[in-house]
Amino acid sequence: MTEKLLIILQIAGRRCALSALDVRSVIETGAITPIPRSPAWIAGITALRSQALTVIDCRRAIGLSANSAGGEWPTDHRAAVITEGGHSYALLVDGIEDITTAAGEAGQVPGGFGAEWSRVALGMIETMAGPALLIDLPALLAGPEAHRTEIEAAA
Amino acid sequence: MDDLLAEFIAETREMLEATGGELVAWEADPADRARLDAIFRFVHTVKGNCGFFDFPRLASLSHAAEDALADCRAGRREADQALVTGVLAIIDRIAAMVDAIEAGEQFPEGGDEALIAALEGGEALAAEDPRAGPEAPLHAPAAAQLGANEDAAAQPQRRADAQRTIRLPVELLDRVMSGVSDMVLARNDLAHRLRQAGNQPTIDGPFERLTTILSDVRDAITRMRMQRIETLFGALPRLVRDLSAELGKQVMVDLDGGDVELDREMIETIRDPLTHIIRNAIDHGIESPSARLGQGKREIGLLAIAARQSGNTISIVLADDGSGLDEERIAAKAVATGLVTAAERAAMPRDKILNLIFEPGLSTAETVSNVSGRGVGLDVVRQNLEKVGGSIKVASIPGEGTTFTLQIPLTLSIIAGLTVEVAGHRFAIPQSYVEEIVQGSARALDLTRIGETALVTFRGIRVPCLMLDEVLGLADDAAAKEPTLVMLRLASGDLFALAVEGIHNHGDLVVKPLAPAVMRSGLYAGSTLLDDGTPVLLLDVANIAAQHDLVSDTRARVLGPLAEDAGAAAESASRAMLFTDFARRRSAVRLELVQRIETAPVAAIDRSAARPRVVIDGLILPLVGLPEAPLTQPRVRLLRLSDGACELLYAVREVEDAVELTDTLTPVPEDPLAEAMTLIGGVPVTLIDAHALFARHGEPPQVAERPRCTLPDGEWARAILAPLVIAAGYDIAPPDEAGAATIGILFEDVYEVAETLGRPLPARVIRLRDQPDAPAGAQTIYRYDREGLLAALAAAARVPAGEAA
After folding, report:
1. Could you read off the pLDDT of B17-69 as tens digits, one per residue?
2. A90: which of B204, B508, B772, B797 is 20 to 30 A away, CA to CA?
3. What share of chain B is helix, strand, coil (3-state, %, to 5)?
4. Interchain pair A45, B516: CB under 8 A
5. CATH number for the domain whose boundaries are B413-558
6. 3.30.565.10, 3.40.190.10, 3.40.50.1000, 3.30.1300.10: which CATH number matches B230-409?
7. For B468, which residue in chain A has the nearest alpha carbon?
8. Per residue in B383-411, pLDDT tens?
9. Is B131 exposed, middle or buried (CB count within 10 Å of its CB: 0-12, 13-18, 19+)?
């Protein structure tokens, strides 16, 4: 079996994983320029060398507005940089924890992960650091609106 | 014209290469519709391009091939072997002719007719063996390829004579471009660190050099990709003239926005579409002079073409004031060709029907002429534009004219932009939209709210005004008392004001695309990085205006000048700019004299001479109207007045408004500088006598001259010393142009030799030495002693030329 490298993150207090191949780098987030009238899950843009990165708040992009206590999640001062569809994004998460190897393939669990999480998840994956939710980047970047539209379409 | 010709040849040859494969495939399967279309597009484009040049033989050949292929496309003729052979022979002939044109040779006469006849003969010729024709260069699939190769091998000498150019993949240029952008940012970072580390002569020199080189490279790279749309517009007046002469019409062309810069590739892409639309407009749109007079129009038709840039899009609007599109005929044709059903047609709005003209196979032209095609033009136009992600739409008013709007994206662009601030956020606006920046109190701008809409009065016209903070949802309750208005003119000619809190600066911005989720808001066209590396968003002005219904579909631009003509004749009351001067007198000056309202820092005013002066835009201008007492405020408002040749500035306490001089003018002979007294809004106002003012104070503006220096010979001086001297505000003069006022910078050894030999030395001289440690009593400066050098330059510049020792 080929060793699949994963980056372990905390998003909204849950352990999640991104394929290391998708993550270009991890940067210190500098000043973020907010974008008026853009969805709440887009935190703004920031500069990485001569490139502008769209900063995504992963918690809001999943569709979670605040934690159970009603407060804000802690945010890591680092962000993971990914490229999707020709555009570069910086992902804001609770914390970037570790790089580890996958101990299997992503799989589903009975009962799913809950509506918001299921939308952005490829499945659960066992890692050296314990089980984590493998994130589907395109789905994450579609934003919570995509989910709502689906529901409306179904209704 | 040579450029155009070279491009025509390069383009035709490139298309020939690309069509090569299609030709072979088509020959194998003449019924293949996609191949047929591709070859059709090729001959059609060649025919179109010939309109620029005088190539009657190329035109007739391509026209014949187009005719035959159009018959196939319309199903009037089978694509049989004879047709294929005929068309291929013509394409070979076109290739040979293009080679001859490039080499500047005369292509051997004759033979064209036989080729054309071979096409028209159709079945009749198919019976014979078409390959037996004595003249026609016969086509065989392999021979075409082979022949081309032999050609190329036979003409290496000829090709070398042409201008040396290479064609590169665009991705490669993109990579170089972004690499240079990265280098600029790395340089800025380094500059920042160097400043922190303090003065280090050994590093500063090379660093300055790096900076100069980098900015050169950046300029070159930018030029590599960008081209002013002027290069495209330049050929249009001639094209319009020739076409209108040929068709017996009178057409005036009005071009605007030629300074918009566009990717070279994009210019190539829009060249044909633009030509096509112009052809159509003149052939079918604009009526004959007699018909126009009969309809009460001016006998000269107007074709207005305007280009505007907004971030990642260029819009080009082509508007004619001809007969407009005939909705009924388009609809009838669309139903007849089965494009839409009669029921669908009944439900379609006019707008939708008009845009059917971009569908393949739809043409309303009754006759096929050499000038415009048979409706194939517009479907090709749309196809070409859509291929690069652009779009085209049409609007038309019967009897009044037709407007085509082309939207073309820029893959990568550097645009001039303005940075504005609102509610603590910064945004960029493309400079091309900015008509003017107006500063002033809400009262002076006559900012009023009519319902939910804000209006301002600009040059006597009420203009809708958008509050940028409201547009972006940043509005706080404490509304800004003194908004700055940016007057923006859209490509459609509509004008509106955007209220912001402040203007920062302007400069070249490298625009990068935004993520789709951000683009969906419709407010932004891209992002860009400021010099300090902060990202800012570029506002999508066209879209913001559209969201607020500020864009009219009618041809405001075309009607504009005509309406203005009429307005100018009717308007007899003259207008004046009302202001309060420093003596607190309300005064006015005739509006025709006012060029601009400038704001200058008090520090820019030089009161050392008998008459105060100000340096604005590198010009030294006389200044009047200042109070005797020193000014207390940091900035002063200045009216820039001009009589056409001379300019002067009039300092004012406050600019109020432009007003009409409706009341009687009462002369005041006792005040030499007053033309008259008049009442404006019931208050007496002194009207400044411009004649007396310019007689007394006017003078042609002088270019603020920078002190000049000559430098020692050698690489070091050129590469290291020169940038430092230039940055310090001196011009470098070649040694033979050195005058008495020129400061000479010399190396000590050169100076000594010259002194010993009694050669003439500059009056003011700075001597440089190589060693950091000065011998006692030396009047020399170590060559890396930056402060010493700058101080010596400043000291030398202060010494009047005559007194220098």
Report:
1. 777 667 767 777 777 777 778 788 888 888 777 766 777 788 888 888 888 88
2. B508
3. 45, 25, 30
4. no
5. 2.40.50.180
6. 3.30.565.10
7. A36
8. 777 666 677 888 888 888 888 888 886 65
9. exposed
